[in-house]
Amino acid sequence: MELDSRKLQILRAIVDEYILSASPVGSKSLSQSSDMKWSSATIRNEMADLEVLGYLAQPHTSAGRIPSEKAYRLYVDRMMRRAHLSDEESKLLMGYFREHVNGMDAVLRSTAKALSEITHYTAVVLMPDIGVNRLKHLQLIPLVEGKALAVVVTDAGVSQNSVIDIPFDMGPEELDRISKAITNRFGGCRMSTVSSELVRELGGDLACRADFVETLLTSLCENQAKDRRMVELSGATNMLEFPEYSDVNKAKTFLATVEQRDSMYRMLKKASNMEFTVTIGSENEQEGLQDCSVVTASYRVNGQPFGSFGVIGPTRMDYARVLSILSNVQSNLGTILQSYLKEE
Amino acid sequence: MELDSRKLQILRAIVDEYILSASPVGSKSLSQSSDMKWSSATIRNEMADLEVLGYLAQPHTSAGRIPSEKAYRLYVDRMMRRAHLSDEESKLLMGYFREHVNGMDAVLRSTAKALSEITHYTAVVLMPDIGVNRLKHLQLIPLVEGKALAVVVTDAGVSQNSVIDIPFDMGPEELDRISKAITNRFGGCRMSTVSSELVRELGGDLACRADFVETLLTSLCENQAKDRRMVELSGATNMLEFPEYSDVNKAKTFLATVEQRDSMYRMLKKASNMEFTVTIGSENEQEGLQDCSVVTASYRVNGQPFGSFGVIGPTRMDYARVLSILSNVQSNLGTILQSYLKEE
DNA sequence: ATTAGCACTCGAACAAACGGAGTGCTAAAC
DNA sequence: GTTTAGCACTCCGTTTGTTCGAGTGCTAAT
């Protein structure tokens, strides 16, 4: 038994309908909808075939059919009509970006908000990893005795604060001197390539503080890696709008899952190498997203992969629409981030 | 009709029981519970009186009674036995603070987390306002042409980053010079007291950049005021555990409300002047918290009011327990924050 | 003043009845 | 040989009815 054109058309119609209504689609109602050229009986027969082939499932006898994950897969890969954003929508989208011109972090947070508000699903954005970026400026600022604030600016414009321990005999002037020395020596290097040898090779009073400097630089990288704020989450509660989550327990599980920054981080990190990904239901590795689908896109600046962002919704999400929104955001983001690095 | 001792005892028992069970308390079950010296009939009569007096309400005839807001008010003001934290609990609480010694912001975020995890309610923490604090260090760090990152450190240890516009002809050296000049001149002054006259009175090349410096300083204050991250929220989804929120719509409303940083900010700001506040049900001004109660405490450092924090829970929250946790946190916080300012 | 007893009330929980939407199958129509 | 109309059947969701238990108010006895 093969998937002939009629089966495909019917399957697509079922998926389209189910994405809208969230309730099982029956042969009769389907045959009444416009541009359905066949009677309910024919559709019934085809539906039975599609069920044997694994594309449809029946919640129970005498209910309509709902698409299986296999059907969504097929839909996404071969059947989906690429949605087209209306002018209004793309203007709306642009609006979010115009609002914030204040720093890369703000732009990415804004992105998360835009995505969640426009799609009505949940959005996650992976903040760029500091390790691959090049150091541009390091400034140590004295706080209290034994502690200082380290501010790192990279070519990506990402800045990061962390409180670090400093030797007690290190005064404000020395902090400033070290800041300048590091900025001069390592400006332009990748954050992750600074090793103790490189530090020792420096002359002057920096040499005798070599251990401190090395600890400082590695701890900055580690700090960043552990910093859970690398994933920006927005619109988690949007999911409560969907009948899929009218059960409070399901909602609770979902919210608990997406609020685990760690697993969101892993998910987005893995997706940073791919232009787009669509992960449907149980294809998700994350426990707790098995009833959801995740669509991600990655963003690049000057060809360098920077990070990724995605939308999480119910399995019956509107893939076509989400994909076109993501692709729109992807290019917007590319342009805007580029402008932060223009002098490179 | 007066509230004699017996009525008070019965009322307290009802409130205690309802806080635990969340379901209407009947005369019979109450009379069977330990240390109830009266028969169900007597309790019934008293309950009827208490209902007339407005302390109890009946969801419907032939159901038990539930406490009214008036009853909670009385309970909190006059009847509540102050709960005592077990050693385990207070150790647990201390643990949260020991974890993070990294900066004041981290401590306060940690506080929010501790509060929500230990109470199982929702916690909010107001970050200290930068305006009343004294400037300790200002550092301008070049980003791209025309933009710089301003990092402010105050005596409170609060640091704040914002991206600012700078004149195009201002190079890294000048930024550094200005940073030092401002730090020298205004170190120790309140952020909000820097006026244009003070700026002009400075000699040297700072004078010709007076406009810039003034704009800079005021915009830093404004930025902070607008920055919505001044309120740290934690454990909002804890509320889904309670039967009060087994209806998804109620849950949605609640979540939407507490995620509005603005209104949480107003609420906590108002509470910063009070040692403790307990706001019950409709006493809340915030639309959407009318079915909740909010308990707050303020924290001070060196007698200076700094900010406040609070717990939001269902009206039947365990006030005694929450209050003793808050008071514990209050003193912990005082001690820890003090240590950040010890060299003052 | 307190309490035992009783008739009454109401909601939650369970069961039976019903209607609707859907199905599979068969036989007629194209 | 497809396609479709028709029919009997299934099963869910809703409604209706019934029971059960916990609670109440009132009265009379303690």
Structure explained in plain terms:
The structure is a homodimer of 344-residue chains. With 344 residues, the first copy, chain A, is an alpha+beta fold. Chain A has 3 domains: 5-79, Winged helix-like DNA-binding domain superfamily/Winged helix DNA-binding domain (Arc Repressor Mutant, subunit A); 87-128 and 230-338, Beta-Lactamase; 131-227, Heat-inducible transcription repressor hrca homolog, domain 3 (Enolase-like, domain 1, 2-Layer Sandwich), CATH 3.30.390. Chain A has 13 helices and 10 strands. Chain A has helices at 5-21, 27-32, 40-52, 69-79, 87-99, 103-119, 172-186, 196-200, 204-207, 210-226, 248-258, 261-271, 319-340; strands spanning 56-57, 66-67, 122-126, 135-142, 147-154, 159-165, 231-234, 276-280, 292-301, 304-314. A 5-stranded antiparallel sheet of chain A has the order 7-3-10-9-8, sandwiched between helices. Chain A has a 3-stranded antiparallel sheet with strand order 4-5-6. The longest helix of chain A is centred in the C-terminal third of the chain and has 22 residues, at 319-340. The N and C termini of chain A lie far apart (59 Å). In chain A, 38% of the residues are buried. The mean pLDDT of chain A is 86. At the A-B interface, strand 4, strand 5, strand 6 and helix 11 of A face strand 4, strand 5, strand 6 and helix 11 of B. Chain A binds a DNA duplex (30 and 30 nucleotides) through helix 2 and helix 3.
